[in-house]
Amino acid sequence: MDTATQIRTPSAAAEAGIYHYDALDHAFITRRVEAFREQVQRRLSGALTEDAFKPLRLMNGLYLQLHAYMLRVAIPYGMLSAIQMRKLAHVARKYDRDYGHFTTRQNIQFNWIKLEQAPDILAELAEVDIHAIQTSGNCIRNVSTDQFAGAAADELVDPRVYAEILRQWSTDHPEFLFLPRKFKIAIIGSPQDRAAIKLHDIGILTQRNDAGEPGFTIYVGGGLGRTPVIGVKIRDWLPVGDLLRYMEAVLRVYNAAGRRDNIYKARLKILVRETGAARFAELVEQEFANLSGDRFHLPDEVVSAIQARFGSPDFADLPQVSPAYQKALAENADFARWVSTNTHPHRVPGYISAVISLKPIGGIPGDASSAQIDRIADLAERYSFGELRIAHEQNVVLAHVRQDALFALWQELEAPGIATANIGLITDIIACPGLDYCDLANARSIPVAQSISERFGDLARQHDIGALHVNISGCINACAHHHVGHIGILGVDKHGDEAYQITIGGAADENAALGQLLGAAVSAEQVPDVIEGVIRVYLALRLPGELFIDSFRRVGLAPFKREFRHGQH
Amino acid sequence: MKLFVVTATNLRDGAIRWLGAGNAWQASFANAQPFDAAGIGPALAFGAAEILAQRVIGVYQVEVRRTADGLDPLSTRERIRAFGPTVHPAFSYAATSRLGA
Predict the structure, then answer these.
(1) Quick one: which of A59, A212, A260, A502 has the most CB atoms within 10 Å?
(2) CA-based angle B48:A43:A25, to the nearest 5?
(3) Which residues in B lie closer than 8 A to residue A45 (C-beta atoms)?
(4) Contact A368/B at CB under 8 A
(5) Across the interface, do A44 and B15 touch by the CB < 8 Å criterion?
(6) For residue A232, what pLDDT is reported?
(7) B97 near A CB under 8 A
(8) What is the sign of the dihedral through the CA atoms of A123, A126, A127 and A128?
């Protein structure tokens, strides 16, 4: 099958679980593409200076990086269809160097884009309802959510419809396109936080009250970067009808009072800290009261109408446990090991969510070739109702796999090199592009990730170590969330040389915590040895069944620090 | 004596450019022209004019040293920019030029 026939127009029935654009959505993104095409032509002709053009290209996701232009394409709340996934493979193949890089904001980046081709790329993406709007700039960025949304067994409320409502509300919102700084929102519907909501400008926990009605708990002021802060709760309960009104209130307070004189103090977290969380909450409530009336009310019928534009998987009526699945688990230890890390319980009997690792041993975290992207799209169609998700950990999820088909799926992952049984383990490393690609970076991230991956590549050893998240950022902007890695690694510039500060004890889940510094920065070559020391201490002191993060919380930093100092002598 | 080269980004395709002999923009760092402290000013002035001519953007100087193999940028960042990402050997600028890219 050639590329042209693989790329089809989406139809509402083709992919379940995906929000389907209406005519208004289509017209909007088509207009944006044509506007950007004209802007690029004016830039190339000299009618627009680079200073005038830069904010326009950034609004369309086009950065200038170390080697070339980089296009960041939005994947709203990380969900896309197999058809959309194939289009990403097509862009990688036709316009880039045959691969894409999935990011910690559940987006994809293409690193070798030509400015003169960017409008054509966006036009091709628009054919399948994909765009790059608001993937950069001081605006509300791609709303992120739980990669198991709508599928997880522990879910209280499916947050996708609210994520979509937030996407529609925030897209091209005239009042919030020029905020003091970028603004990030995450929403979840499970008590287990898989989207790091407390590390966002606004974090939303969707849950139900005693009457069974959905509503929201609101956190604000979280963020990483130069000043890492865990978000604080400012609203225990917000009815669904008030969601947009409350979002407007938070954004209005921030837009009016957020600092614009210092880029490093412009994020909401600084305003909340300087104002005080209680006072900030009061200001929001005052603004919220001023916004009374129908204009900002979110009616039930609108929620229902948007919900109706999501396809719904046609789940089969299956027993809770599949005998074929149990048999495969019992007979194949490799499969059982993969299942132990790369799956998540599903809410529907007989189904399970599968995580495809984009972290092969020694590979580049989050990178996928166009052939792999195409292959994953094929698998999504055959095993998961044509729907897939990008996890903020830079992996891909097939959310709705029949348990009795899981063994066959696993067998198909081997050939394209995406069967690594390491989700949540030490080699499932979150890494930013670092100095190899990023114009802002101080140090490389990817080679450090590769060296750690190779050092700990033995799967039996990884599984023995257990859940352990390693996050590596190439600069203080913290795109790889190093502050909240169980082991966090920050690349710094030390007198012109790359060096790496290591923290331990961070967490991005419902018990979010910032890591604590182990000691002075070390060289790239020393990083695997330092981590080896951390693991050695953990294995020596862990209680039976105790995870790394729990051991750390029990014993504190001191024994790890002692080991670090010992290793430096 | 400090040595510098002048680099920029090609406007149309975002590719890295190096100012070579005769004020010609070169795709390969190997063809970059070194300038001493006295020569770098006029070279940067030429680069500024090239920005106005809409050929390149982001012109700046890079400090280099001479080695047995030729010029070599001092900083890791500029070495990566000159020779390509260290994690994709196929994308090194030597490799891509061999491929005719």
Answers:
(1) A502
(2) 145
(3) 54
(4) no
(5) no
(6) 98
(7) no
(8) positive
Could you tell me if A355 and A395 are in contact, meaning their C-beta atoms sit under 8 angstroms apart?
yes
Answer yes or no: do B85 and A437 touch at CB < 8 A.
Answer: yes
- Tens of pLDDT, residue by residue over B58-90, are 999 999 999 998 999 999 999 999 999 999 888
* CB-based contact B54 A114, cutoff 8 Å: no
Calpha distance A341→A395 (Å, rounded): 13
Confidence class of residue A312 from pLDDT cuts 50, 70 and 90? confident
Beta-sheet strands, E only, within A274-373:
343-345, 351-356, 367-369
pLDDT at B96: 43
Question: Hey, are the CB atoms on B15 and A68 less than 8 Å from each other?
Answer: yes
pLDDT band of residue B95 (cuts 50, 70, 90) is very low
Encoded tokens for A330: 């019992």
Contact between A496 and B76 using a beta-carbon 8 Å cutoff:
yes
Residue B10's DSSP bridge partners are: B56
User: Rounded to a whole number, what is the distance in Å from the CA of A428 to chain B's nearest CA?
Assistant: 18
Q: Which residue on chain B is closest to A63 by alpha carbon?
A: B14
d(CA A293, CA A101): 44
pLDDT of residue A15: 62
Share of chain A above pLDDT 90, in %: 92
- Distance of residue B86 Cα from the nearest chain A Cα, in angstroms: 6
* pLDDT score, position A569: 73
pLDDT at A7 over 70: no
Q: Do A115 and B51 touch (CB under 8 A)?
A: no
Q: Please judge whether B86 and A45 are an interchain contact, meaning their C-beta atoms are less than 8 angstroms apart.
A: no
Are B74 and A496 a contacting pair at CB < 8 A? Answer: yes
**How far apart are the C-alpha atoms of B62 and B47, rounded to whole Å?**
13
Q: Which of B10, B54, B65, B93 to mutate to test the interface with A (most CBs of A within 10 A)?
A: B54
How far is A185 from A65, CA to CA, in rounded Å? 25
pLDDT tens for residues A65-105? 999 999 999 999 999 999 999 999 999 999 999 999 999 88
Rounded CA gap, A537 and A279, in Å?
43
Q: Does A66 touch chain B (CB under 8 A)?
A: yes
Is the separation of the CB atoms in A65 and A111 below 8 Å?
yes
- Burial letters for A401-430: b for 16+ Cβ neighbours within 10 Å, e otherwise? bbbbbbbebbebbeebbbbbbbbbbbbbbb
A292 pLDDT exceeds 90?
Answer: no
> Is this complex's ipTM strictly greater than 0.85?
yes
| Closest in B12, B76, B81 to A114, CB measured | B12
Give the gap in angstroms from C-alpha A64 to the nearest C-alpha of chain B.
7
List of domains in chain A: 3-126 (3.30.70), 144-308 (3.30.413.10), 323-413 (3.90.480.20), 430-568 (3.30.413.10)
| B77: nearest CA partner in chain A | A435
* Mean pLDDT estimate for chain A: 94
A45–chain B Cβ distance below 8 A for any pair: yes
Phi, psi angles (nearest 5°) of residue A54: -50, -50
**Cβ-defined contact of A43 to B76 (cutoff 8 Å):** no
Name the pLDDT band for A568 (thresholds 50, 70, 90): confident
